[in-house]
Specification:
The chain is of the alpha/beta class. It has 2 domains: 76 residues, no CATH class; 226 residues, Rossmann fold, CATH 3.40.50.150. Helix content is 35%, strand content 22%. It is built from 10 helices and 15 strands. Helix 1 packs antiparallel against helix 2. The chain is globular, with a radius of gyration of 19 Å.
Length: 304
């Protein structure tokens, strides 16, 4: 068992070292990045919970095993292109929906850095508790958290509870011996927001199409300009094909793009990005104008 743990630790460290040399923030100061990695490996073994400085004035509560967030401690913005788009695009006039917010990385960026009105939805009770603590220590008053699952309609579904960031809603036909909770589900169209959403992030381990099907009214609103969808191959557990998300969003004139933060430009892609996030944009010209008009943001004293 100790050998397996040592091998796993070695693989993690090796992967982090490789990422350091390719990550846009990590490679700017390799030694500082190595120090952040080493520091957290030590701190996480000493403290059960640690309040860590993250971006600018933002703080987060982390502990060993928070694999959905610790990459951000090392590299600032672990999902660099996607998180940079959020920072470059959103401002205090926008409303952001974070569906599957986990402990709140994207919500903290939206509310804390961009000052946007932020609605976050996290069904897992443990993650939701951490999310609330992260919002509390940052004294964010422009965030509205919900401890429920977003789906196609109101109801109840079983939700795994012991898989960390990979927890998911079980399909009605799935028989599993993993730990599950019975959770309330709601569709996004059933909510009333202070202002109509400008951007939505969806990361629900394969249940993304059901989320979109419960958002038909929102998808028709011209205020909604972009959607970031994680596609990781888990759609099949609900009987969906990977291209079903792209086909569904095409009906509302959303097309897939990649974003180049350095040039602040977009590249149209023919297919979704497998095993990762795909950015869908509607009215590309309006999105570009919004990004160009926004003031430059500094993170970790680095001009982005």
């Amino acid at each position: 068992m100790h050998l397996n743990k040592n091998m796993k630790f070695f693989k993690v460290i090796t992967s982090l070292i490789k990422t350091t040399f390719t990550h846009p923030i990590g490679q700017k100061n390799i030694f500082k990045t190595f120090f952040r990695i080493l520091r957290w490996q030590i701190v996480s073994r000493i403290k059960n919970n640690s309040i860590e400085n993250w971006l600018n004035d933002l703080k987060v509560i982390c502990q060993s095993g928070d694999t959905g967030f610790t990459g951000n401690l090392y590299f600032g913005l672990y999902d660099y292109d996607d998180m940079r788009f959020i920072i470059d695009f959103l401002d205090d006039k926008d409303t952001f929906l974070d569906v599957g917010s986990n402990v709140g990385a994207y919500s903290l960026i939206s509310a804390g850095i961009c000052k946007s009105k932020t609605y976050c939805f996290e069904p897992n009770s443990k993650n939701y508790s951490k999310l609330l603590k992260n919002l509390e220590i940052n004294a964010l008053t422009n965030v509205f958290p919900f401890n429920l699952a977003i789906s196609e309609k109101k109801g109840f579904m079983r939700f795994s509870s012991n898989l960390g960031p990979e927890n998911y809603l079980l399909s009605t036909t799935e028989d599993s011996d993993i730990e599950v909770d019975l959770l309330e589900t709601r569709d996004l169209d059933s909510f009333t927001f202070i202002s109509l959403p400008t951007f939505i992030k969806i990361d629900v381990e394969g249940h993304e199409l059901s989320v979109l099907k419960g958002s038909n009214k929102i998808l028709q609103c011209e205020e909604l300009l972009g959607i970031l969808v994680e596609i990781n191959g888990n759609q099949s557990r609900y009987g969906f094909e990977e291209d079903s998300i792209e086909n569904y969003l095409n009906k509302y004139n959303f097309l897939p793009y990649t974003y180049n933060p350095k040039e602040k430009n977009f590249f149209r892609i023919d297919n979704i990005i497998p095993k990762g996030n795909t950015l869908f944009i509607r009215d590309l010209q309006k999105v570009k104008e919004k990004i160009i008009s926004k003031k430059t943001v500094k993170l970790w004293n680095m001009k982005l």
